[in-house]
């Protein structure tokens, strides 16, 4: 039975723009995956504190995703005005007719799909990535979070957290609905099997480098001990955060310079090359859902050392890496030394196959399209 090609409108609380080039890049990856099977338009409002004048629309098309970004001043009413301007630009100027709205991240823009549903009777689904529902972040929550999350989710045909753990945290928070887990995605054509130099066991850390989240200080304290007693290990650490701060911090700890390298913000292609020259991924986060970097590492055949937080344990087993408790630096040191001596026991091809079967563009796109076709179309 043939189906018509659907037209999907992606809306989101986060998306890469001139305001922040990496914010919500995992949403962008979902859009690119869906665009292999559907016509995809992204509408995103990017507020900039220094913005003057009325909202301005900018458009571009990349990897089959038609992206419309509306730049505007900060503040709820300015962003609402900009969003509505973007909607009517798409529907009237572009004459695009949408079948389904796919919203990403309920806070703080969960009103957007509800408005589209009430104004145009458009069905919608919601993908949730946010760690804010984790009890560890309870003290950081906005007073309106519960209201907006429930308001935005109430009319959704499906709620799609990226892990089962996040699904349970949302339910515990009081967000009820028709849940279907659809994980993060990786372009398995971009991330291929690693082939590192075997003169050292090379560990890689990629993240935002925010200490309260990623516990970079803990990683460096442990690395000081490991590298002092083992000259055959190396750590490459970087991402889109305060890399110079951590470089100086490593020097202040007396970490041997030849045992560690640092890098700043790089492209996905750059991340892929880093992974392909590494043996294993190293994370020590205080909280997570399912970081894209884990999915990418598996696609490169890299085993993973990580804390047992969020939905990570749903995918990292003994065959795919080592899990430690949050904040347990002694356990992290043991895990690194254990992996350094057993790295060649991991089946890289099996790790990649696991990633392709669950997280590839094809697998994730098919999962979403199956949901789109079950919202009454």
Q: What structural keywords apply?
A:
seven-stranded mixed β-sheet, 13 helices, alpha/beta, Rossmann fold, 2 domains, globular, 377 residues, six-stranded parallel β-sheet
- The computed structural class is alpha/beta
Per the CATH scheme, the topology name of the largest domain is: Rossmann fold
Assembly type of the shown chains?
single chain
> How far apart are the first and last residues' alpha carbons, in Å?
15 Å
The CATH architecture assignment of the largest domain turns out to be 3-Layer(aba) Sandwich
Order of helices and strands: EHEEEHEHEHEHEHHEHEHEHEEHHH
Helix content: 25-40%
General shape: globular
Strand content: 15-25%
Number of strands: 13
Q: How many domain units?
A: 2
Largest sheet: spatial strand order: 3-4-2-1-5-6-7
Query: Major beta sheet, specifics?
Result: 7 strands, mixed
- CATH C-level name of the largest domain: Alpha Beta
Kindly report the average pLDDT value: 95
How many H/I helices? 13
Radius of gyration, CA atoms, in whole angstroms: 21 Å
Stretches with pLDDT under 50, minimum 5 residues: none
* CATH homologous superfamily identity of the largest domain: Glycogen Phosphorylase B
Report on the structure:
- There is one protein chain.
- The protein has two domains: 7-185 and 360-372, Rossmann fold (3-Layer(aba) Sandwich), CATH 3.40.50.2000; 201-358, Rossmann fold (3-Layer(aba) Sandwich), CATH 3.40.50.
- Strand 1, helix 1 and strand 2 (39-47) form a beta-alpha-beta unit.
- Strands 3-4-2-1-5-6-7 form a seven-stranded mixed sheet. Strands 10-9-8-11-12-13 form a six-stranded parallel sheet, sandwiched between helices.
- Helix 7 (216-229) crosses helix 8 (243-253), helix 10 (292-299) crosses helix 12 (348-359) and helix 12 (348-359) runs parallel beside helix 13.
- The longest helix has 18 residues, at 76-93.
- It is α/β, with parallel strands linked by helices and 377 residues long.
- The model has no long low-confidence stretch (mean pLDDT 95).
- It contains 13 helices and 13 strands.
- The protein is globular.
- The chain has helices spanning 25-34, 76-93, 111-120, 145-153, 164-173, 211-214, 216-229, 243-253, 268-276, 292-299, 329-342, 348-359, 361-372; strands at residues 7-12, 39-47, 56-62, 65-72, 100-104, 124-128, 158-161, 201-207, 233-239, 260-263, 280-282, 304-307, 321-324.
């Amino acid at each position: 039975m043939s189906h018509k090609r659907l037209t999907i409108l992606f809306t989101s609380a986060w998306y890469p723009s001139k305001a922040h080039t990496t914010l919500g890049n995992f949403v962008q990856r979902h859009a690119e995956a869906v665009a292999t099977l559907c016509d995809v338009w992204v509408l995103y409002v990017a507020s900039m504190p220094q913005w003057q004048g009325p909202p301005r629309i900018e458009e571009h098309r990349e990897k089959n995703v038609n992206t419309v970004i509306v730049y505007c001043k900060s503040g709820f009413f300015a962003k609402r005005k900009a969003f509505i301007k973007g909607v009517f630009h798409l529907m009237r100027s572009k004459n695009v007719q949408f079948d389904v709205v796919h919203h990403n991240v309920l806070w703080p823009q969960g009103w957007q799909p509800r408005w589209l549903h009430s104004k145009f009777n458009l069905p919608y689904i919601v993908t949730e990535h946010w760690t804010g529902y984790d009890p560890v972040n309870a003290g950081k929550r906005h007073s309106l979070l519960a209201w907006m999350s429930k308001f935005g989710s109430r009319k959704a045909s499906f709620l799609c957290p990226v892990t089962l753990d996040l699904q349970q945290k949302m339910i515990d928070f009081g967000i009820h609905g028709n849940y279907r887990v659809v994980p993060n995605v990786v372009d398995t054509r971009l991330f291929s099997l690693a082939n590192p130099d075997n003169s050292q066991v090379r560990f890689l850390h990629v993240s935002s480098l925010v200490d309260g989240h990623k516990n970079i200080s803990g990683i460096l304290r442990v690395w000081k001990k490991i590298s002092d007693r083992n000259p055959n290990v190396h750590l490459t650490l970087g991402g889109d955060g305060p890399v110079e701060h951590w470089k100086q911090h490593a020097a202040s700890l007396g970490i041997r310079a030849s045992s560690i390298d640092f890098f700043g913000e790089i492209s996905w292609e750059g991340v892929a090359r880093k992974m392909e020259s590494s043996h294993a991924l190293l994370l020590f986060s205080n909280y997570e859902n399912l970081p894209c970097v884990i999915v990418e590492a598996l696609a490169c055949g890299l085993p993973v050392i990580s804390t047992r937080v969020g939905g990570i344990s749903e995918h990292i087993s003994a065959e795919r890496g080592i899990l430690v408790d949050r904040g347990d630096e002694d356990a992290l040191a043991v895990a690194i030394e254990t992996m350094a001596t057993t790295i060649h026991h991991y089946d890289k091809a099996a790790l990649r196959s696991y990633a392709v079967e669950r997280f590839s563009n094809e697998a994730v796109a098919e999962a979403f399209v199956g949901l789109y076709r079950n919202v009454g179309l």
